[in-house]
Amino acid sequence: MMPIPMDEILTELSDQAFEASRLRRIGVHTTPDQVSAEMLVELEAAGDAMRFVDADGRIAWKATPRLCDHLRDLERDAQDDLEDV
Amino acid sequence: MPGREPTTIPSSIEAMRASLLRLEGEWETVQASRNRDAIYGYLTAVFELVSWWATDGRAVARAGRALHLRGHHSDREPEPFAALILCTADRDQVDDRTRSKWSRVLRYAAEFKDPDEPLGDFIRRKGGINRCASRLSRQRRLGKQYQGAQPNEIACKPPILLTHFWFRQNN
User: Fold this and answer.
1) Number of CB pairs < 8 Å for A and B?
2) Is B56 at the interface with chain A, CB within 8 A?
3) What is the pLDDT of residue A28?
4) pTM score of the predicted model
5) A56–B2: do the CB atoms touch at under 8 Å?
6) How is chain A split into domains, by residue range?
7) Residue B5: its chain A contacts at CB < 8 A?
């Protein structure tokens, strides 16, 4: 099965979600795609991920502008905190 | 359609609500901006959403669901671009004529835009919103004329040949 096409932000979140589920698992084997799919459903419903048609005509996923703005704010806050230290 | 998702991920009603909210946010950004090109951001968001609906083969059904969610009811099959604009842009600002024009621009882009090219660049390259809208109208008119010509030609040919045959027989 082909991996779900995602942008950089969602790929990173998906990797983190898979690692978290791998550490939590008790005898249940979940594939990275299953974890990604569950994560994308939640993010899409929350308005943080969206589908789009990529240059190859496939339906792919990317972070919404809202999530991008939120992450940018978090990064800026972290940088400010570092400067204060 | 060129491609479906490798893993089928269902789309929920909450996801539809989130998409409509996102487009309403884009519309508010246009309203708050003094930049003339801000409209391209909103039109791009509408175009992207309908594009994946269409690739998934459910554009009309999803447009109908969006209209229903926003309390619009229509007996006719909705045109997805116009439906989304109706659902997400301020109706006092966007009248029927403007909505129809933007929908034609987006349908023209859906037919002729390269997937790599940003929508705003495409529209500007084609002479702007009004030009793109009239290009689609012209295209459709020519299409109708061309389609209409074939049966007429076939219908006309036998009488001409018969007349010719009658003329030769009687002279």
Assistant:
1) 73
2) yes
3) 72
4) 0.82
5) yes
6) 8-84
7) 4, 58-59
Structure-block tokens of residue B138: 């012209």
Q: What is the pLDDT of residues A25-83, one digit of tens each?
A: 766 778 888 999 999 999 999 999 999 999 999 999 999 999 999 999 999 999 988 88
> Which of helix, strand or coil describes residue B5?
coil
The tokens for B115 are 């997937």
- Min Cα distance A25 → chain B (Å) is 22
Pick A57's closest partner by Cβ from B6, B19, B55: B55
Predicted local confidence at residue B139, as pLDDT:
78
In this complex, the residue of B11, B21, B115 whose CB is nearest that of residue A47 is B21
Mean pLDDT of all residues in B114-128: 94
Contacts of B148 (CB under 8 A, 6+ apart): none
Measured CA to CA, the distance from residue A81 to residue B73 in angstroms comes to 52
* Residue reference for tokens 């400067």: A83
